[in-house]
Design brief:
single chain; alpha/beta; L-2-Hydroxyisocaproate Dehydrogenase, Chain A, domain 2; 2 domains; globular; binds adenosine-5-diphosphoribose
């Protein structure tokens, strides 16, 4: 159990994280910071006054706190409209930003299109962390994932391994789920890794996919696997298109908690994470999805897989995409 977990962003994912942290008793205290509802300067003054008094994070925290006697959990919950609720956190999980949302015509923006908005939010998030919990391990979920983690690194320059992103666990979970469905076996039997950027060029690594330790090809044919891998790359968008109000929230929260528990219980568990590479996989200075040992200190060691030539090429393509977005980030940050 940690002393405190800070949640930045109290929307859909933040809400699931709050409930699960309290239910699983992962820390003595959980603090949630979210400025919502935002005060709209063009609203009449009386409406602005109402919005100033309201607070999504305080409301969610009080709701969960009032349920703690029922579930017999002594985890304390504090919410704030500013960043004070994350004060002293040992681990901070960042979901602040605007998620992908379907437009009225059914199309939706790419993660990269959200970059401009979310970079400004991330600048505030970095200031909040710097002020209230500068030594925390930082796990970031907000999209575009690779670029936001890169931005936090530029702004905070934390020690190696103490800042990383959640995407690979979610994407791998999706790959495993589709394979389990196709093979008609328990999801517990399927293991797989999805590497690279958290975008349409992510790389489901077929050579790492096994069912009860047996290569997946014994159970699922190549054409079906190719269709599954293509669906995996677009799985986030599939949900955005169905929901209409935002993006997936239960599975991303659970994926982040898988990583949080590896830290809290010092599991040294191998999980695909968006980690800073310093020469591994031939990449330097970018955050890319790779398998890594996660323990009490965060990302403790990046694991280099023996990829097939096709997988290597696909990873290089995905890394090139991440690099392009990070170059845009560098340009935007210079003007922020
Ligand atoms: N500081 C803190 N929180 C902020 C800030 C800020 N500067 N700006 C916005 N937020 C809050 C919003 O008020 C909102 O409550 O971030 C929250 C985001 O929650 P949702 O819109 O419900 O989005 P969610 O589904 O939780 O996804 C969060 O994770 O998977 C990604 O693409 C997704 O980037 C998105 C993030």
């Amino acid at each position: 159990m940690l002393n405190k977990i800070g949640l930045i962003g109290g929307g859909y994912i933040g809400g699931v994280l709050l409930q699960e942290i309290v239910q699983r008793r992962l820390a003595r205290e959980v603090g949630m910071s979210d400025p919502a509802p935002f005060v709209n300067p063009s609203d009449p003054p009386d409406r602005q006054e109402v919005a100033k008094k309201q607070s999504v994070s305080k409301g969610k925290c009080l709701d969960v706190a009032e349920g703690t006697p029922t579930i017999r959990s002594d985890v304390r919950c504090v919410g704030s409209k500013d960043y004070s609720a994350i004060e002293g956190a040992d681990l901070v999980i960042n979901t602040a930003g605007v998620p992908r949302k379907a437009r009225p015509d059914g199309t939706f923006p790419t993660r990269e299109e959200l970059l401009t908005i979310n970079l400004k939010v991330t600048a505030e998030v970095a200031e909040g962390i710097k002020k209230y919990c500068p030594d925390a391990i930082i796990l970031s979920i907000a999209n575009p994932l690779d670029a936001i983690v890169y931005t936090l690194d530029k702004r905070l320059a934390p020690p190696k391994g103490r800042l990383f992103g959640m995407a690979g666990q979610l994407d791998s979970g999706r790959y495993c789920y589709f394979v389990a469905e196709a093979a008609n076996v328990s999801v517990e039997n399927v293991t797989a890794m999805v590497l690279g950027g958290h975008g349409d060029t992510m790389v489901p690594v077929r050579s790492s996919c096994q069912i009860a330790g047996i290569p997946v090809g014994k159970f699922v044919d190549d054409a079906t696997l190719a269709a599954i891998e293509s669906r995996t790359r677009k799985a986030g968008g599939e949900i955005v298109g169905m929901l209409g109000f935002g993006s997936a929230f239960a599975s991303p929260a659970w994926a982040a908690l898988e990583m949080a528990e590896a830290i809290i219980f010092d599991k040294r568990k191998i999980i695909p994470v968006c980690a800073k590479l310093e020469g591994e996989y031939g990449v330097d200075g970018l955050f890319v999805g790779v398998p890594a040992i996660v323990g009490a200190h965060g990302v403790e060691q990046v694991i280099e897989l023996d990829l097939t030539d096709a997988e290597k090429a696909a990873l290089a393509h995905s890394v090139a995409d991440v690099r392009k977005t990070c170059d845009e980030v560098d340009t935007m940050l210079a003007s922020l």
